[in-house]
Amino acid sequence: MNNHKNIDTVCPYCGSGCVITCTVDTETNRIIEAKGSPEGVNNEGRLCLKGLYGWDYLNDPQILTKRIRHPMIRKGGKRSPLVEVSWQEAIEYTAARLKAIIKEYGPDAVMGAGSARGPGNETAYITQKFMRAVIGTNNVDHCARICHGASVAGLSQSVGEGAMSVSIPEIEDAEVIFNIGYNAPVSHPIVARRIVKAKKKGCKIICVDPRLTEMGRLADIYLPLKGGTNMLLLNAMAHVMVTENLVDRDFIEKHTTGFDAYAEEIAQDKYAPEAVAAATRLDPDAIRKAARLFASSKHTVTLWGMGITQFSQGVECVIACSNLSLMTGNYGHYATGVGPVRGQNNVQGTCDMGLLPNQYPGYQPVTDEAVRQKFEKAWGCVLPDKVGLPLTRVPAKVLREKDPKKQIHAYYIIGEDPAQSDPDLPEIRRTLNAIDFVAVQDIFFNKTCEHADVVFPATAWGEHDAVYSSCDRRFQRVRKLIEPQGDCKPDWEILCLLASAMGYPMHYHNTEEIWDEMRSLCPKFTGATYEKLDANHGIQWPCFSEDPNDKGTQYLHKGAHFATADGKGRFYYFPWTPVKEVESPDYPLSLSTVREVGHYSVRTMTGNCRLLVDLADEPGYIQMNPDDCQSLDIADGDLVRVISRRGQTITRCQVSDRVSQGATYMTYQWWIGACNELTISALDPKSSTPEYKYCACRVEKIDDQKQAETDVKAQYAAIRSRMGIQSEGGLGHV
Amino acid sequence: MFNHIKTDPELCIGCKTCMAACVASHTGKALFAMKPNSFDFTPRVHVVYTSKITKAVQCQQCPKPRCLDACPFNCISLGEDSVVIDEDACRGCGKCSKACPFDAITMTRIYHGNTKGRPFRIVAYKCDLCENTEMGKPACIPACPTEALSLFVPKAAGSAGAKKTPMKI
Fold first, then answer.
1. For residue A184, which phi and psi values (nearest 5 degrees)?
2. Around Cβ A209, how many Cβ atoms within 10 Å?
3. How far apart are the CA of A604 and the nearest CA of chain B, in angstroms?
4. Residues of chain A positioned with their CB less than 8 A from the CB of B51
5. Chain B residue nearest residue A185, CA to CA
6. What pLDDT score does A732 carry?
7. How far apart are CA A305 and CA A205, in angstroms?
8. What does R_g of chain A's alpha carbons equal in angstroms?
9. pLDDT at B168 over 70
10. How confident is the model over A433-457, as pLDDT tens digits?
11. Which residue among B17, B31, B109 sits closest to A48, beta carbon to beta carbon?
């Protein structure tokens, strides 16, 4: 058909960086079909269900919520309805409000949250530039804070680079995979593809997870540890390697520092597998076997996810993982190293672009005077020299900070939904209600919009050009597929309008202009021109030179020359720190948040895709052990009430003998069964990442199931109406 | 023996992409222009999770199908190269589903299409190898991200298969 066009782009879900070929009907302005592109280095022509069918939200079927098409402000002040206004009015209003707050309280009263999702790297760069150069603060952050923030901090300390050292295709050539707190079959099916392929090639898999995940099922050694005891296990494995002399002396001597002091601590009897068996609930022999297997190969790849980072001891456990690779010589060559596999499509990119309170783009510290001067010269302004606020500290800075001069008074949120994604939602709502001015830039009306004073309509993935960074540092070009409807603008354009209205003229003709400015300021990315991205299936950073022969870097730390100041990897010893809230008689069960394979993030996108909604929908479920269900007299599929010290929610019971007694699991995508009503806002002191993976709860039986079913339907209808949907629909067919 | 789809449980990660692909294939591309809830979500493949195994389960197209014998209304027949359920004739009694040794037949409520004048109708759904779809061949196989699914063709496997199967003495 003449009006059908095939366009290659990058999937907007997860960090795997799959290349998709989309067939677009240019006449009806719709996508017809998506297929995996053989050009995709990481996906080799394959896609998961989100890649194949997750573009449907561009059709705006209004299942859970609906697209924002026009700028809106609350003309009558807080709690008055949002009304549609012109772009000029919305921009002038926002500029005036922000300027007034800066004048009264100073620039550090403003917090900015950028988007790691659809907008891409160019918008991420403009977001941090806007916050730093126009507002004048380093208070800029994004969702890495609540996921892999600990990996960035921990690995930077350990080996000088916070990203995956290994690339996705290399996983398939690993001889041993140490998989801890990571469930690729659910979070990254296309990474799981490499893991199962590796297994077919003879690779041995060690899986550590309190729940028997798909990875656990496929593993050769499965270690079902008690949640919250990662450090004990990691130290015990290190203990075995040190005391059984399984370490690589030569590598340690040549390429690392701090081993002797570390080894002395680790060799203590308290870290013998037998000594940690009770607390970790693991078989000491299995720990020894796992340690020996890990150390047996120079192609051991360590993969971790939220099961390491979303604990109050996240950063230290990241370093403990890296220690194992360092002491066994598993860094610096093909098919080895570490993989903190990033969750969102561009969360690697938003870190790359300096959407962090302590770093400019290219991982350059805001506290380094020479770096700051370089950015001041380029941007023509004076920049703040103080590290900014992590976004998880916003509630404390609003609700508990007494000095108005030190409070946060304005929150500018781009493509994020803290009122769904952040821990302890009752506290988040109190925070958003107490902030003087909340601005939201998004593609969908979401829970945070309900607290916003101004809402800007942004273009979605598929409606603009961009570059995303995959989880293994690959910059890839993302293409516009269809024309945006209504009054939407690309996120970077909205910020440029606002900057100009605030007295700092910002103007770019296209994303390449932004990209080129960014490259000129970031040595690690300088060589990654659009031209080279097109010619090479994307470019993995670091890529220092524009020379066509510099094709980037497949794996980091080649030859074990680490990215630290002295080029050496560093050992650090940390004792175990228990989780912050344990089970008690009133709250006898532990709760961990997990993922639903067919849904993504806060579900605004996948919750509006026909096939994905039909596979799994509200009110979600809580996975529980059969014995716990029996003692509570609840059956599979029953609606149950889940209560913690923070709040409560209703969801469906899913009985599973893959879950151990006393532990429960809730996927975080649901709006009715919202697990973040229950989670605790305890933070890792080093990375400010919340402890989503552990808090205490209780589950209550609901006697009148029929009434509960009716209530859930009513709740769904109420959510849809709050999101502005007028048509019928939602849960169920009747 | 008929062609049928096989799942390798060592490769299956339980992601349900096959289920979505099945519905997309049978409903057609028009699905993405239809009002949500105006079509039935009736996957003909299901992912089963036991304590130890995860596996996509679909009809094995048995040469002597127990479901055929179990159907009291003669709605199941042997087609040219598969077991065929006449979905319009199906009365939803569920006997075929109970008889299936693979648990590959799912009784599903449908609210659209031919509901015979009632608000909904229960119909037996199972893998039909996408024979009557636009694609005409199984959609789940190319959709599977881990290549866990394959089409088993007995004729092609014939001689090789005979060698591999240990003889009972």
1. -55, -40
2. 23
3. 15
4. 212, 657-658
5. B13
6. 55
7. 16
8. 25
9. no
10. 999 999 999 999 999 999 999 999 9
11. B17
pLDDT bin (cut points 50, 70, 90) of residue A731 is low
Could you tell me the residue range of the domain that residue A672 belongs to? 589-708
My answer on whether A165 and A242 are in the same domain is yes
Q: Looking at residue A726, what is its pLDDT? A: 86
Whose tokens are 């609840």? That residue is A634
The secondary element (H helix, E strand) that includes residue A521 is helix A511-521
Answer whether residue A164 is part of any domain.
Answer: yes
In chain B, where are the structural domains located?
Answer: 4-154
Candidate from B24, B40, B53 with C-beta closest to A611: B24
Question: What is the rounded distance in angstroms from the CA atom of residue B131 to the CA atom of residue B75?
Answer: 18
**Are residues A272 and A355 located together in one domain of the fold?**
no
CA distance A434 to A455: 18
**Residue A591: which H helix or E strand, with range?**
strand A589-594
- Residue A263 scores a pLDDT above 60: yes
At A186 the pLDDT is: 96
Looking at this predicted complex, what is its ipTM?
Answer: 0.95
Q: Do A185 and B13 touch (CB under 8 A)?
A: yes
φ and ψ at A547, to 5 degrees?
Answer: -50, 130
The answer on A276 and A160 residing in a single domain is: yes
**pLDDT, mean of residues A625-645:** 98
The SS3 assignment for A566 reads coil
Residue A74 φ then ψ, to 5° = -90, 95
Instruction: For residues A396 and A430, state if they share a domain.
Output: yes
CB-closest option in B16, B17, B31 to A610: B31
Asked if residue B169 has pLDDT above 50, the reply is no
Beta strands A364-365; A410-414: pairing state: unpaired
Q: Does B118 touch chain A (CB under 8 A)?
A: no
Which architecture does CATH list for B4-154? 2-Layer Sandwich (3.30)
- Residues of A whose CB is below 8 A from B15: 48-49, 185-186, 189, 192, 597-598
Average pLDDT for A131-150: 97
A598–chain B Cβ distance below 8 A for any pair: yes
CB contact under 8 A, A658 and B34: no
Secondary structure of residue A367 in the 3-state scheme: coil
In a domain, A551, yes or no: no
Same domain membership, residue A278 and residue A372:
no
pLDDT digits (tens, 9 = 90+) for B18-50: 999 999 999 998 899 998 888 999 999 999 999
Whole-angstrom distance, CA of residue A540 vs CA of residue B60:
45
**Do A145 and A540 touch, CB atoms closer than 8 A?**
no
Determine whether the interchain pair B145/A196 forms a contact, defined as Cβ–Cβ distance below 8 Å. Answer: no
CB atoms within 10 A of CB A119: 32
The CATH number linked to A182 is: 3.40.228.10
Answer yes or no: do A305 and A442 share one domain.
Answer: no
Work out how many domains chain A is built from and give that number. Answer: 3
From CA B98, how far away is CA A192, in angstroms rounded? 34
Helices and strands in chain A: count of H runs, count of E runs: 26, 28
Residue with tokens 């048509």: A727
A52 touches chain B (CB under 8 A): yes
Rounded Cα–Cα distance for residues B77 and B80 (Å)? 10
Token pair belonging to A45: 């022509």
Provide the CATH number for the domain around residue A128. 3.40.50.740
Q: Is the pLDDT of residue A363 over 60?
A: yes
**A454-457 and A72-74: which strand pairing?**
antiparallel
Q: A500-555: per-residue pLDDT in tens?
A: 999 999 999 999 999 999 999 999 999 999 999 999 999 999 999 999 999 999 99
A407 Cα distance to chain centroid: 26
- Say what the pLDDT of residue B36 is: 87
Q: Residue A625 and residue B123: Cα distance in Å, rounded?
A: 32
How confident is residue A288, by pLDDT bands cut at 50, 70 and 90? very high
Q: Report chain A's mean pLDDT, rounded to a whole number.
A: 97
- Over pLDDT 90: what percentage of chain B? 80
